C-alpha cells in the first residue's frame, strides 16, 4: 500500500509538493519521513535514478527525473513495479504541469495544488490488487517502465547509519572505468618502451652507417 509521497527539487532538496496525510499516518511515518529528508540531502548528480530503500516495515522508493525527486513510502510487501509505475505517473504529470517553473521557485511547497492529482493517483495504487487491475490497461506505461531487476535496492541502516551514499555505485563504476583507462594507457606505454629497447640499438647502428656512407661518398 502506498502510504505517503513527497516531491522535492534534487539540486537543493527544496520541497515542492507532498501528499496530505492524516494524523495517524503522520505519526506512523514520522521516523521514515525524517529518513527521506536525509536521503534527499545525500542525492547528487551521480545518484541512482531509481532506488528502493528498505526501512523496517516500509520501503522508500524514489525516482529522479529532470532535477526533481519523487519519493513514496510504501509497505515493504508492496510490489516495486507498482510503486515505480505510480512515481512514473506523478513525474509525467508534474513535468507537464510545472516543469518550466521548478528551477525558479524559492518557497517550500510552491506546487501544493498537485496534491489533488497525487491523491487521485494514490487511490488507484493504494491496494496492490486494485492497482494491478488498474495498471493492466496502462500498456504504454508498462512498456516504458524499466525492468524491476535494474532498480537498485539498499537497506536504510546501510545507507544512512554506516556512512554509505546514494551515488556509491555510480562512483564505483566511474572509478573502475577510470582505472581501466589508466591500465590501458600504462600498457601502451610499457609496450612502447619495450619496443624502443628492442629496436633502438638497431636504429642507432643503421643511422650511424647512413652517416658514415654519406660522409664517405658525399
Question: What would your notes on this structure say?
Answer:
The protein is an alpha+beta fold and 218 residues long. The protein has helices spanning 23-28, 30-42, 80-98, 115-125, 128-135, 139-144, 156-161, 168-217; strands spanning 2-9, 15-18, 50-55, 58-65, 68-75, 152-155. It has a 6-stranded mixed β-sheet, with helices on both faces. α3 runs antiparallel to α4. 25% of the residues are buried. It is built from 8 helices and 6 strands, in the order ββααβββααααβαα. A hairpin with a 2-residue loop joins β3 and β4. It is elongated. This is Protein transport protein SEC22. Residues 137-197 form the V-SNARE coiled-coil homology domain.
Features:
six-stranded mixed sheet, alpha+beta, 6 strands
Tell me the quaternary state: single chain
The tally of strands reads 6
pLDDT < 50 stretches: 137-146
Number of helices: 8
First-to-last CA distance: 95 Å
The fraction of residues in strands falls at 15-25%
What is the helical fraction, as a range of percent? 40-55%
Characterize the biggest β-sheet: 6 strands, mixed
State the order of secondary-structure elements, H for helix, E for strand: EEHHEEEHHHHEHH
Keywords: Coiled coil, Endoplasmic reticulum, ER-Golgi transport, Golgi apparatus, Membrane, Protein transport, Transmembrane, Transmembrane helix, Transport
Membrane topology: Single-pass type IV membrane protein
Subcellular location: Endoplasmic reticulum membrane; Golgi apparatus membrane
Main location: endoplasmic reticulum
Amino acid at each position: 500500500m502506498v502510504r505517503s509521497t513527497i516531491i522535492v527539487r534534487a539540486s537543493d532538496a527544496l520541497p515542492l509538493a507532498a501528499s496530505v496525510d492524516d494524523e495517524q499516518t503522520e505519526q506512523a511515518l514520522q521516523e521514515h519521513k525524517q529518513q527521506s529528508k536525509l536521503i534527499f540531502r545525500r542525492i547528487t548528480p551521480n545518484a541512482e535514478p531509481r532506488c528502493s530503500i528498505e526501512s523496517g516495515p516500509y520501503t522508500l522508493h524514489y525516482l529522479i527525473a529532470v532535477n526533481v525527486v519523487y519519493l513514496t513510502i510504501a509497505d515493504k510487501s508492496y510490489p516495486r513495479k507498482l510503486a515505480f509505475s505510480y512515481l512514473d505517473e506523478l513525474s509525467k504529470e508534474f513535468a507537464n504541469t510545472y516543469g518550466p517553473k521548478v528551477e525558479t521557485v524559492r518557497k517550500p511547497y510552491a506546487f501544493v495544488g498537485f496534491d489533488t492529482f497525487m491523491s487521485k493517483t494514490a487511490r488507484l495504487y493504494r491496494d496492490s490488487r486494485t492497482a494491478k487491475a488498474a495498471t493492466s490497461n496502462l500498456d504504454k506505461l508498462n512498456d516504458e517502465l524499466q525492468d524491476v531487476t535494474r532498480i537498485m535496492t539498499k537497506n536504510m541502516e546501510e545507507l544512512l547509519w554506516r556512512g554509505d551514499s546514494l551515488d556509491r555505485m555510480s562512483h564505483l563504476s566511474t572509478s573502475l572505468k577510470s582505472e581501466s583507462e589508466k591500465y590501458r594507457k600504462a600498457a601502451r606505454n610499457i609496450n612502447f618502451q619495450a619496443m624502443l629497447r628492442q629496436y633502438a640499438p638497431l636504429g642507432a647502428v643503421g643511422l650511424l652507417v647512413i652517416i658514415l656512407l654519406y660522409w664517405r661518398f658525399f
